[in-house]
Amino acid sequence: MLKAGIVLVDPANAAVLRVIALQYNPETLTRSLQVQGVGADSGPHVDQLRLKGVAIETFKFDAEIDAADVLSDPGGNPTTVSNGIAPQLASLEMLIYPTTQQLAAADANARNGVLEIAPMDAPLALFVWSSNRIVPVRVTEFSITEEMFDSALNPIRAKVSLGLRVLSIDDLPYASSGGSIYLAYQQQKERLAQKAVGGSLAKLGITGIP
To answer: Is 37 helix (H, G, I), strand (E, B) or coil?
Structure first.
């Protein structure tokens, strides 16, 4: 069975840095789309049909992580036996943390009197839900519910709730690797839309447009 997951890539060249595969595919995936229209309700009539950009899309899902199968196997992974699912949780948590090396460099710059410090760069995260849905994202919501523990209080079962915002060409340079990945994602939507079976006016109970 194919797994959903998150791939971290170098934003400059899309080289793969890390792959995080979810243990179980979420049972539901909630998608929300916010229209980026030009005109507000009281705006000029001509603006009501204009779009100033692509829709703002977000994903929300719950990922289940469980060490029961590994712990019940006498030859199970020794890392899981010693740490439970803490490594898997940490790999997801690091999506929203700068590295300690970056923190040390920022502190050194501050100590050296650098007044303006650029924000710390992070890898580009790609949400992968099959080969037809690969999209650059930013984590916007993150919570962990640890549900069971071993005798050393290592978590052995947990639910991770993630909220992701799709990064479009409004957020990424058009010609960048991230921008190209987003465009491929939208082009896939366009191809799917063309395959949808069209309706007819008769099915709507009308013979024409007034």
So the answer is: strand
Ordered by start, the domain boundaries in the chain are 5-111+121-196
pLDDT in tens, 28-77: 999 999 998 876 655 556 677 788 889 999 999 999 999 987 777 766 67
Residue 170 · residue 136 · CB < 8 Å: no
The dihedral region occupied by 205, where left means phi > 0, alpha psi between -120 and 50, and beta the remainder, is left
CA distance 187 to 87: 36
d(CA 127, CA 141): 14
Please give the structure tokens belonging to residue 185.
């994602």
* Residue among 161, 139, 167 at smallest CA distance from 64: 161
Tens of pLDDT, residue by residue over 116-171, are: 666 667 899 999 999 999 999 999 999 999 999 999 999 999 999 999 999 999 99
Instruction: Let me know: does 113 contact 123? Beta carbons within 8 Å.
Output: no
Residue 92 identity (one-letter amino acid): L
Asked if 142 and 158 count as a contact pair (C-beta separation under 8 A), the reply is: no
